[in-house]
Structure formats: C-alpha cells, structure tokens
Amino acid sequence: MFGYVRPEKPDLLIRDFTVYKAVYCGLCKSIGRRCGQIPRAAVTYDMTFLSLLLLALSPEGVIMNQESCVLNPFRKKPVAGPDPVLEFAADLSCLLAFYSAKDDAADERPVRGRIAALLFSRPAGKVKKRHPGLNTWIKEKLDRLNQLEKGDSADETAACFGAILKRIFLEGFALVQREDDGLTALLLGEAAEALGRWIYLLDAIDDLELDRRRGNPNHFLALPKDEALLSAEAKLLEEEATVDRNLALLTYEQWGGLVYNIVTIGLPATRQRILAGERLPAL
Amino acid sequence: MSSNPYEVLGVPHGASEETVRDAYRELVKKYHPDQFADARAKELAEAKMREINAAYDAITLGNQQQATRPGWGYGQAASQQPPYGSPYGAPNQSPYYRSRGGTDSCCQTLTCLCCADSCCECMGGDLCLCC
Lengths: 283, 131
Prior knowledge:
heterodimer, A: mainly alpha, Farnesyl Diphosphate Synthase, two-stranded antiparallel ribbon, 2 strands, B: mainly alpha, Helix Hairpins, 6 helices
C-alpha cells in the first residue's frame, strides 16, 4: 500500500507513540514469522493502522513483549503480538505488496517491479493458500481497478479500491469481535470504504507529475493542475469527514487517543502536505 | 463514558468560552444524527449528542455561576477542581477526544486591563487611581 495513513507525531503522547511503534514492530515480526524475512520490507503505516484499529476494538487486547530486532540487536523494545490480527495484517501486507509489485512491473517501474514480484511470489503463494477466497476476490477487484483506471471516472475507481479496503477491514474485524456486532461492523465498513477512496485519490494526486511525464493513466491529468488539486481537495475533505464521523462513534477498548490522532489530525495533515507537494516526514 | 464535561468536549479545564464553543460546534457537526443513514448509528449519534449538549450546558452554566460569585471560597476549594486543572488528564479517561490547547482567558483579561490603562493615561488619568 502507500503509507499515507500515519499519525501526526508532534501531537502524539509518548505512551501512544510507544504503542504505535510496538504495533509496527509486531506487524514486521509477524510478516517475518508468516511469510519469511524478505517480505518484512513490505511493512507499511497503512497496515499498521489496520492492525492497531482492530486491536483497539478488541476486548482481549494484545500481548506486549520486550524483544530485540535485527536492525537494533542490542536494545530490547516493546513489540506487540503474536496475535491473530497481526498475522492477518501480515498476510495481507505480503499479498498486497506482491500485487503492487506486479502492477509496477506492468507499467510504472519495469525493472524494480519485476525484481520485487519475483521476491514476493513465493511468500505470496503461501498467503494465497491460507486465504484462497479472499485472494481470488482481491485479484478480481484489482483487475477491475486496472480497467477502471484507463476509463474516465476517478470516483468509480476510488470506490473500487474502497470496496477492497472494506472487505479487508471487515474480515479482520471478524477476528476480534466477541459476539456478532452489526453496528460496529457497519460503521467500520463505511469508514474503511471512505478511507480506501481517500488513499486512492491522494495517491493519484501524489503521482500526478510522475504520471504526466511517463504517460501513465491518471484521472486528474484531464484537468489543469490547479483545478485538479481543488477538485481532489474537495473529495478528500468529504472522505476524511466520513472516516472521522464513523470511527468517532465506535467504542474503543484501548488506544482511542492514538486512533484519534491518526484519523482526526494525521489524515488532514498528510492531505495538506501532499497537496502542497511536500515530502511526508519520517516518524 | 466520561462524566467530566471538559473531557467530553475535549477542552482543558478552565478553557475560555470561545474555545468551549468552538469545540462544541465541531462536535455537533461531527455527530449530527442526520448524517447517519442506519437507524442504530443514528441512535448512537443521538446519545452522543445528548452527552455533548449536557456537557456544554454544564460548562456554560458553571461559568455563569462563577462570574456572579465573588471569588473562590475556602469551603468549596477542597471539593472542586482547581480552575486550571491537570494538563495530563485523568489516567483512564475515554481518550478519543483530547484537548488540543486553547486561548487563555487570563491573558485576555490582562490585555484588556493594559489597553484600558493606556487609554486612561492618554486622557490624563490613571486606571489604578480610578478604580
């Protein structure tokens, strides 16, 4: 995925930042356990958000251990998991990284894409066996997305990506809900759909100049740059409001402040930076 | 759910009326039940709105009472929250809405006093002597 859904660090409490890092590390380590060491490069902020949102709703919570890491072998840090939610997010990270690499190989970055697709094909194969139904469905949707990208409706394409994210969030939520919680699933689904549309639109704006140069399809290329930015901003604001409205109604078992930071402060901050053409700061 | 009205609105204790009003408007916009299509979501939003309204009423009503009161009596001081509150918040409050700071009413008062004093001096008098 893309790494747009991230917290706004200056507004984070230290304890929330510690939790965020623990979930990030937990996801990376889960990818290592489930798919092998190379796919650990596929850990993203978006999937970290998926994991921590689901864990925040989980009545059981998550185990935190002090563990060291290859990148920092001498200092132990809090790491979340092992946990079914993190394992699910790990599988999905790997699978989506594989499809994204294949997509890159097809048009944007042929060499890099092919190498990545080669490295991810074996671990992605394992994931496909574990989630056959979900994999087929995602593949169909991504093919449809590729067709729609060449068409002329940005909204329809964004909606397709929204549908993918909705299904992923709801499958993940099935792992944490204790009894059938229809209302939470409904609100979560709507938020995930809007978040998917938001990510897709923001990515289209972020890649605008690159796509112009390389001649890749991008719906916003039809408009002059100023108009494209204005039209995207209006849509992004609407999606942000939908995500915020739905997630704000949920009852969080823990980490509500962290979810609030990412959704209410992080999303608008990222949108402003991308629209202004700035780089996103490191966390 | 938190019963502290300041926590419900996500503003610090003793926030200015303006900050409280802005936070209240923001929340009303977010939780307006008409935005939700599903009946259960609407109901949840309505409950949230009731909570927000109650918190806003509690704070504004409290501010009015405070304005008519001569000062902080010795008797009440022990049982009530200090006017500045703790900037760290309660340890296990419902944290979805957190404060993001606000303008200080004390600062505003001092600015007003300073302006009034300058004005008096220009007229040839002195605010301190006037009062």
